[in-house]
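Journal club prep — side note

Before the paper discussion, L.F. wants everyone to see what a predicted structure for a comparable chain looks like in token form. Sequence:
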Amino acid sequence: MKTPDIKKIDLLLQYILAVAGRDDDAWNRELGMIHLIKHAYLADLSYAERNKGETYTGLSWKFHHFGPWSVKLYHRIEPALLAIGARQRMIPNPRDEKDFARWSIEDDHLIEELEDQLDLVVIGSVQQSVRRFGSDTKSLLNFVYQTRPMLMAAPEELLGFTPPESIDSDSGQLEVADSSKGLTARQQKKRKEKILALKKRIAERLDSEIKETKIPPTPPRYDDVFFEGVENLNSMMTQPMSPMELSAHIAGDMWKSKARFDEDVS
């Protein structure tokens, strides 16, 4: 594993937030620590799949609590985002004395500046994951937990990014392209055209997925059957349920079970 590249880490965090700032939904424009880290992980994973397991940032990722975690990345969030003038909103944490932050910025010019310094695979990954999940913590975590490095690791282990086999452009993944460093004006123009085409393809793919999975909601029926059922349920409750705390114990060998990562094992 190579040494973490602070410049690339900062660029990645800044780009993730800048892309979120383009969302039509104001709620999704604000990202917290957990969103920034998980989107960065997905970008590193996409890059590693095309570069023999080498991550873009050079970070070592660990399976820790809520999925992929990097201490170095966590400590770069505040300085990286403050450097681009991002807004920080502190929200009280009802479970802890320590408040947590939400970050946001809207700057289209900044996006273009950052794209000139990033690899196209990273750009494509961020565009795809941020538009798909944004600040939807539940969906983002669920997706991240299903990625191969997470399925192959146990808690507190380092994640392995070496792909099982090479990924080609016909697999539905994003194409590999060089960064803009050292390119001529003509090559820069072609690269920008590729970025625009990449964004369009991602938008069309996500729009198609949304249309295919969107199910119209069924309106509730507040009729006699409904109210009779509620009354029966209430009559069965002789005593109110008391709050309780439960814990689940997971066998250590479960994390290495083929059932977690082998599709042929049911």
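L.F.'s comment for the group: Residues 6-165+173-211 form one domain. Keep this in mind when we get to the figures.
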